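Obj: model holo form, ligand = manganese (II) ion.
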Amino acid sequence: MKIHEYQAKELFQAYGIPAPGGEVATTPEEAVAAAERIGLPVVLKAQVHVGGRGKAGGVKVVTAASEVAPTAEAILGLTIKDLPVRKLLVTPASTIEKEVYLSILLDREVRKVAFIGCAVGGVDIETTAKETPEQILRLDMSAADLQNPPRDRLHAFAQDLFPDPGQADQTVEIMAKMARLFTEKDCSLIEINPLILDGDGQVVALDAKVLLDDNALFRHPDIDALRDMDSEDGDELDAKAQGLSFIRLDGTIGCMVNGAGLAMATMDTIKHFGGSPANFLDVGGSSDPRKVVAAFNLILKDPNVKVILINIFGGITRCDDIAQGILDALEQRDVPVPIVVRLIGTNEEEGRRLLEGTQLTPAETLEQGATIATKLAATGGTK
Ligand code: GDP
Ligand code: MN
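Output (holo structure tokens):
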């Protein structure tokens, strides 16, 4: 899960990581009032879930009172990488003596947590990693290191970012606090770009990006409450509320599958036979027919869907319940595309019998189902 910069900075402050405070504004008037309370100069920063806001005109330093309202209005009118700006962070402007890059992340490829640093900050780190990889510093952290950060190794790393001993010490403190935040809140990334040396000799987080592990949110209700419904895919949230796992993709074959592993295998099989899945959808292990109805509604919201492939392995989920759910859904709403069904496992006979004589196309195997669905999608899905 992504959170906004202002929310990430609140977490930083709770953990003692120095970051400028500020206020959130949703209108130019609110921005003016906030700027008056904070005192000029201020920075107005678009709060959207993407990086590169500065380049897109979403971060502006304002020194004159008369400029606050027009600048706020301009930023609130922006759409950055498809995301409309609805909120601004109004924050005191800092003097930047030096900018570096610092992050702690879960590196899935090598299955390790690591600090990543670069003495040249404020720039796009991906570009640096590609063009001058020797500038990227890395410090691996074992589980024991995360519990009890080894100060000497942190210091050696910090000194490559800020050679001045006092500044390196401040950076070590920040790193130790980042390690604690990372562990306690189940983060997958904490990125500070730039981490700056300000005019008062303080090392401060000027920007903050925090990614949290969705699978751990159940133990962090405080973090879950930070979710910005405006910034997330509405359908994916709807699905979650109904107990379905749903990810929208850009293909033409709508998929309804029970079990995440089988859903992945179904998408792979569709691809293998030349088709393209329109979504990932796991209806879960329950046999609640209402979930099937909800799943149909989600899939059919997508105008690209030309055909639906239902792939059910009935273990705990009984095939006849799923079949009943499909029939219920077809009574409740018109499904204007062909439906290919592969039902196998518990009560498959009963399930298939229920579906006889309906608009559904039965498939014996997943391969057959994927082949039929791919053909139907290619011909525009006409029944
Ligand atoms: P991003 O572009 O989305 O990564 O947004 P950042 O928060 O990193 O801001 C982009 C750039 O704006 C920074 O690298 C700074 O150069 C500049 N900037 C942001 N805040 C301040 C500030 O308080 N003072 C000054 N002088 N520049 C700032
Ligand atoms: Mn940044």
